[in-house]
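Why this split exists: single-chain examples teach little about how molecules sit against one another. For that reason, every record in the complexes split bundles all components of an assembly together and asks for one structure covering all of them. Below is a record exactly as it appears in the raw files.
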Amino acid sequence: MALLSILHHPDPRLRRKAALVTRFDDALRALIEDLFETMYAAPGTGLAANQVGMSMRLAVMDCSETRSQRIVMINPEIISSDERREMEEGCLSVPDIFDKVQRYNRLHLRALNEFGEPFEVCAFGLMAQCIQHEIDHLDGKLYIDYLSPLKRERIKKKLLKREAA
Ligand SMILES: [Zn+2]
């Protein structure tokens, strides 16, 4: 296993739409282990493959307090969602910045696991929020895109200053 380095906004690789995963082999499962290790070390509740520079529709998550409920979602799709509400959010690619965004509180997810087998899950609260956040990553979107242009500009300046330090 290895710790991977996480890309930070405004890296252009975070803005590309990730490609569908078609090969479910040992290399994919090794990458998944590295993603989990990197996410737990950060620490974070989710990590998308394109946050470490791999253009693949793959994300790992663990929204539990005990850090013991691993979820792998590959080629994920949200089938239905409802109850939008404001939730506090942060992102490992936008370090140390938090803000409120509108997310669906409930959703129905369809995805593949690390063996290419389909599964469906109904999620609510933090897990629903995390799923939307990670799928946004796979589409090249960041949660700060939902904030005002002024706020986004301030965040970008802050992060560029931080990277330069
Ligand atoms: Zn994120």
